[in-house]
Amino acid sequence: MRLPLFTVPICDFFYFIAYCGYIEIFLEIFFYHKLIIMNNHFEMLNSFIIRYVEMSEAELTAFNQQCNIVEFSKGDIIMKAGNPQQNLYFINKGLIRNYIETDNGETKIYNFRTEGMQITGYAVYNYKDNLNALVNVQCIEDCTMVQIPFSVIKFVIENIKSGERLGRGMAEEHVVEMLNYIINRDSKSIIERYDLLEIEYPNIHQRVPQRMIASYLCITPVHLSNIKKSRKISMEQSN
Amino acid sequence: MPAHFEIFNEFITKYVDFTASELVDLNKKCTKVEFAKGDIIMKAGEVQKSLYFITKGIIRNYVENKKGEIKIYNFRSEYMTVTGYALYNYEENLKALVNVECLENCTMIEVPLIVINYVINNMKLGDRLGRYMAEAHVVQMLHYVLQRDTKTIIERLDSIDKSFPNIHQRVPQYMIASYLGITPVHLSNLKKRRKAI
């Protein structure tokens, strides 16, 4: 039996309707998914921000839309000391080291940064020196970060009411962090600084090679290993 | 020599454009104070209510470790602020993080922290001033740390000469040695050797 000719367009029509429905559902799922991904990527950054200042949802969205999510591999050098920078970063996942090289080519680790922290290389404060990074930044793990161009920082400062205050709060916290680093270096024992590092960066000893921890503590890896051994012995004896 | 508040205002307008009336308003809320050589203005661990701006004199920022050893962390002289880092120390109730002692008779502008709050909340560029000052602090501190790890003692001695002209006439040598992390004898030997070259 042959179907009447007109049924074909009718079928097409219903197929078309059904097809549109699928697309709609598909698009909905796709965008919803994307929205969730976006929220996840910027959620950590936004909660970091609102720790300092109040920003409206609309302001946060306007800000987030101008930032990018970027991935780096373990070993990647993101910033080089002395090179002008165009971005700062906020770590969603991963761990980096801030370090310098001395004239004799020795590497000195100055500190670490991990999830929920920003990476500036101190470039963003270095107005006198063309926004050059003051330290090198290298990924110690594969990292996911929010990249914030300096032009966007400018946008936030000039267009968002509490932008200036956010910058102030962040710089002030930096001052306290650095001063504590300096004072601890001069007044705490190696083992005290080792324990402090663990508090500031949970699991750091599983994530970072011991030679880097030793560099941060300004001692040799052998010295660090001996200190840890003697502590273990004294703890066992006291038990 | 410009009047004390003029020096203070010059420092502010280096960072931001406050209007003349804003500067007058701020100046009225601050007081000119005098300290004698040896006065301790701030003690580490004590809650602070003011910061200072030096118009004449020099001070040292120092910490004491558990053994009672004194470590000078830096100096401050004319055109610089003295905060003891208290005003940044929100987590700890605005306690000073270092001790501050006058090494000469000093004249300062005392800026109460409530006035800082007033400036931040009532002046358009107040937050920006605070941001720039904190940012300058960060860079200065980082340079201190990096120089300690990368420069020789002689290089650091030259750099302190540049930051504080005449410091050797104003500050005892043992304090400069403490700042450099060496003994006074070591410093004296280094200077002799440098002179010989």
Report on this structure:
The complex is a heterodimer of chains A (239) and B (197). In chain A, the strands form two sheets. Chain A has a four-stranded antiparallel beta sheet. The model of chain A has no long low-confidence stretch (mean pLDDT 87). Chain A is globular, with a radius of gyration of 26 Å. Chain A has one domain: Jelly Rolls (Sandwich), CATH 2.60.120. In chain A, a hairpin with a 5-residue loop joins strand 4 and strand 5. Chain A is an alpha+beta fold. Chain B is of the alpha+beta class. Chain B has a domain of 120 residues: Jelly Rolls. Chain B contains eight helices and eight strands, in the order H-H-E-E-E-E-E-E-E-E-H-H-H-H-H-H. In chain B, the strands form two sheets. In chain B, strands 1-8-3-6 form a four-stranded antiparallel beta sheet. In chain B, strands 2-7-4-5 form a four-stranded antiparallel beta sheet. In chain B, strand 4 and strand 5 form a beta hairpin. In chain B, helix 7 packs across helix 8. The longest helix of chain B is centred in the C-terminal third of the chain and has 25 residues. Chain B is globular, with a radius of gyration of 18 Å. The interface between A and B is medium-sized, with 31 and 32 residues.
